[in-house]
């Protein structure tokens, strides 16, 4: 499979390099407008010298490179070298990174070149940009020849450079330059970051400006210019395969909206509310910063996860739990977590016990702040809530209405946080699920218990069902502890390779990078 992939890539690159011989009508010859800007029109070989003279007149510090730069184009009729359609290709990006790391290399027009490879908007035409990068190549090549004392023509060097091995070598050096991150989510986020950088350079990401003021929710069959803009946004993000530019909220767009909502943690319906438009309007620069922050979070837990063949991961911003065993996701469940005033703590531990039909010993803070007044005003309150006082503590007896539901998962920690079932299933229908006093409420708690006990033959389905009848507390100690990671990722790539961005519910991104903090309010 790897051989086939490499053959495909090499074949594609062969086609790409050979295409340099093709004349690109929009960039080969030019005329001056009244404003003095350069506009490229039809090709004519007689215009090549005039075009080059014009370029080196405007970029006079590059005149010393003129003959060498033009030699690169002699067999390409000035077809672009460093562009793939409207985007700088991988060879251009590799050259830029190599040039930056070359000691004592003086690069004329450094700012203009930096702008080409950053998210900054540039008014430079594609032809000027290509020739600027070619000038950078000559400067880099001259320095390389001086350092290595080689005698090679620049055109021959370029042919060697425009080779897939150049990209492979660059990727390999990048991989060895950094400490390897074992958690593969890091590299998934890195791939998305590359795609977003490429999208950012196209300057196609424009703010969606709602056609109606005040904004009105959009539903299927609606007709609006806002729909046209949303359609384009979802096309750029990959949720739509094509952009029909239609202003009708049709079946095709419904499917794309659903895909977009599910991967970003929104309630799965077809309504386009104002909050969804605001999320779509978050600048790409902010999204890229979010990706970088979460790549660093991957580094922080990489070693532990790499050493675990079985673990539970709870991600607070996406309100989701996954149970992984033997490298495969066995179960995914919605959760709700601590409210902003009683935040769920971010930490790692090991699940060592599963408790069926648990008692709930009510924390004293809840007794003082919430229950004392109710007990004082209603003498039957404890009985009505299936509660009792034991050794001076209020606890709720096992049963279907117990606040912990019918099962809880225990792991040592100073904050007394654990996973548990809940009778309040309707709370999982909310998009923002910050309701608890810090513990993590699991929608599929029973299914999680069943999955965890598969290696314990004595715990068959009948025994689990009986233990969860809610009559008597039954605690089982696991012979093999299961690592649990309570994490805070505001962006993650799911099992289908789709990126999701989630609300910074505890404002932890803002703590790490306040100038880039994202607000969805």
TrEMBL record:
SUPFAM superfamilies: L,D-transpeptidase catalytic domain-like
Family annotation (PROSITE patterns): LD_TPASE
Cross-referenced Pfam families: YkuD
Catalytic residues identified in the record: 420 (proton donor/acceptor), 439 (nucleophile)
Domain L,D-TPase catalytic: 310-465
Biochemical pathway: Cell wall biogenesis; peptidoglycan biosynthesis
Highest rank taxon of the organism: Bacteria
UniProt entry keywords in alphabetical sequence: Cell shape, Cell wall biogenesis/degradation, Peptidoglycan synthesis, Transferase
Family: Belongs to the YkuD family.
Protein's name in the database: L,D-transpeptidase family protein
Organism: Flavobacterium piscisymbiosum
Lineage: Bacteria, Pseudomonadati, Bacteroidota, Flavobacteriia, Flavobacteriales
